[in-house]
Amino acid sequence: MRLKDDGVSRHHCALERRGDGIYVCDLGATNGVVINGKRMREMERRLEAGDRLRIGSVELRFEIPAPAPAPVPAPAVTVAFEAAKGARTQVLSPAQVEIARSEAGATATVGNLFPAVSNARAKAKPATNDRESARRWAPLAALLGFFRTTSGAVTLGVLIAIFAAIFWLMLTPSPLKQQQATASQQTTEDKRESEWLRSILLGGAEEQPKQEQPAPQLPDEPPPQVAAPQEDEPKNDAPIAPVPFRARGGVRIITGFEGSARGEVTEIGENAFAINMHGRERLFFLFKVEGAAGQTVRFEFRNVPLMSWTTVNPLYAYVEDLAALPTLASEPVENPQARRGRNGPQLPDTRGQPWHYIENVSTRGGATGGVYSFEQTFEKDTAFVAMRAPYLPSYNDNLFAELQKHPLAKMVKLGATKEGRPLWLTQIGEAREADGGAARATVLVYAREHGNEHDTSFVAEGALQFLLSDTPEAKAIREKYCFLVIPLLDADGCASGVYENVVDDFFWGSPGAESLVLSAWFKQWMDAGNRMDIVFNLHNSVSNGLPHLMAAEFEPRRARANHCVALNTRIAEDLKGFSVARNPYQTGYSRFRLGGWLQEYYNALYMPYEINSQEPRRHLTMREMREMGAGMVRASAVYLESEMGKELFDANTAFQAQRLENWKKFGASLKKANALVAEAKCRQRAEAEAKNTKKSP
C-alpha cells in the first residue's frame, strides 16, 4: 500500500496480523514510525484500539470495530488515515488495506511501493433537494419525451443512418489506395523471394564484391527493431555467454565477458550497430570491437534516457587485458591540450592513459527513451569501448596482490561473495595507539555498492595511493588515524553487469551473502574496542547536470547534519580544481545499506557521495578521479582535527562505551546469531530495559 507523501520510504513499515492482535513492524525507514507521539524504537509492537501511527506526515488511527452479528472467517480490520494537520480522515476497507490472511497470520506492507489508495482531498458536498434536482434535469426529460413521439423516432433514425454512413466511408479505403497497397505487398514478396533464391544459389557468399556496394546511408530515424522491454519486465541477472556479432563490413562486436554490456546487438548497416539497453543496466556499457583497423564504426544505443546521456562521451582503449594494472594507469602530460566534444563538454588530454574520450557524439529522440549515437575510426584491429573506464573484479584482485607486497598496507580478505569472489579490504594505519593504547579515529571508504558504477573505484584507489605515498602529509595522517578502504564492494554485480545486487541487504530479516560477511567483520572490529567514526559511501551519478562531487545525503538530525556540513566544506576547500556541491541531494540515510547500518549501530558519520567523471562542462582523467580520493582523505584529517571533529570523536567514544556495556548485559544469548540479528536484538533489549527503568518509581 503506497502513501503519497515524501516522508514515506519505499519499505516503511508492515502491519502483521497474529493470533493475539495486529502488530506494526518497523522496516528501518529513515523517518521511522511514531506511535501516540513517540517514535517507535523497537522492531515490532502490538497495536491497541485507538493507537495513532504517524508515517511521514500522514497519521493513521487503528480501530477494531465491534464484531458483526453474522459469523465471519476473521475479524475485520479498519485503518483510518488522517492528515497530520487534521484536514480530513479517510477510512480504508480491509480489501484496500490488503491484509493477506493465512493460518499463521498475514502481513500488509505500508510504504511507497504498491498501487496507491487515492488520497482525495475534496470534501463531500451535501445532496441537493428534490426541487433543485428536477429543475436541473428538466431539459433532458423534455428531449427524451420528444423522441418517444412518432416524429421524434423518425428524426432519431435519420440521424443514426447519417452517422453510420459517415463512419463507413471513413473506414473503407478507396480503390486507388487498395491497388497501391496490393502492388507494394507484391513488390515486397517478390524481393524477399529473390533474396532467398539468391542466397541459396550463392551458398551464403557475398551477393556482389564489396567494392561494388554503395556506401550505406543511415536513416534519420532508426529502422524498426525489437521492441524495447518495459520497465516492469523481469530482469535477467545471469551472466551472458560470450557471443561475437559479425557485420557485413567485417567488424565484430563481442559481449558476454566480465563486466560487459547486457544489451542486444543488431546490425543496421555496414559497420553500423544498434544496441538495445534495458532497465538500470542502461547506466553502463562495455564491449569489445575486433576487425576494426582503419574502419569507421557507428554505434547507436536505443531505449536510453537521453536526459542522463546527453553529455556522455564514451572511451576506447587499445589494450589486450582489462585485468592488467597498466590498463588503468594514468599520468599527467606536458602542455595538455583540451578539446571540445561534439555534444559540448571539454575533454581532457588523455595521452597519459590508455583510455581516450570519443568526440563524435549525437542524440535524437525523447528524454526518457531516445537514441544515443557515436562514431569512431579505429587505428588498431582490437579495441574496447565503454561508457566509463572499466574497473573490474579481476583488476581489483591484481591490485590487492600488488598491495600485499607493500609494508604499510594490511590486506584483509573478509570472505567471499555469493558467487565465490573474494571480498578485499585494506587497512592503513594502526587501529590503536602503541602498546594497546586508546583506539584511533577510524575512517571507512568503500565504493561500488552498485556494481556498474565504475568511477567510484578510482576514487577509492586514489585514497589508497595517497595514504601509501611518501609525502609528509600522508605519513602524518597514517601515524594518527586508521583508514579502511574497499574499492569494490559488489564484485558479482560488476562481473555480471548488474546495477543492484547487494544494495539493501543489511536488514536482519533478509540478509545477503555479502552483508553477512561484512557485518560479521565490522562487529568483530567494534567488539575488539576499535572505532568507526566516518563512513564514505561512493556512488556514480549520471553525466548530465551534476558536479564532479556531490553529497547524496546529510543525516536528518540537526546536530549530526552540522557535522556533515563541516566535513563537506573541508572536502570542497581541498578539491579546488573540481566542481563540488555545497548542499546535499537530500536529507536522510539508508539504514539497510552498509554505511547506514554502521551509522545506526556504531554511530559513524555517514557520508554518501556521487562521483561524476563526465561532468557536463569538463570531463576527468583517471588520474584526476584518483586525486579526488586523496582530497577526501586530507579533508577528513583536517575535519577530525577541528573542534567539531573532536566533538564527534567524544560522542562516538561515549556511544561505543554504552554499546559494550549493553553487550555485557544482553549479549550472552546472542553469540550464535548473525551480526545483523544480534545487533538489532541487543539494542531492542537495552531500550526495553531503559523504558522499564524510567517507568518504575
Brief summary:
With 697 residues, this protein is an alpha+beta fold. The chain has 15 helices and 32 strands.
Describe the structure.
It contains 15 helices and 32 strands. The chain is 32% helix and 21% strand. Residues 72-130 and 174-246 have low confidence and may be disordered. The chain has 697 residues and is of the alpha+beta class. α14 (643-666) packs across α15 (675-695). The strands form seven sheets. The chain has a seven-stranded mixed sheet. Strands 4-3-6-7-8-9 form a six-stranded antiparallel sheet. A six-stranded antiparallel sheet has the order 11-12-15-23-17-20, with no helix packed on it. The protein is flat.
Low-confidence runs (pLDDT<50, min 5 residues)?
A: 72-130, 174-246
Main sheet specs: 7 strands, mixed
Distance between termini? 42 Å
User: Reading side by side through the largest sheet, how are the strands ordered?
Assistant: 24-25-27-26-28-32-29
Number of strand segments: 32
- Class based on secondary structure composition and strand pairing: alpha+beta
Number of helices: 15
Q: Globular, elongated, flat, extended or rod-shaped: what is the shape?
A: flat
Task: Write a concise keyword list for the protein shown above.
6-stranded antiparallel β-sheet, single chain, 7-stranded mixed β-sheet, 32% helix, alpha+beta, 21% strand, 32 strands
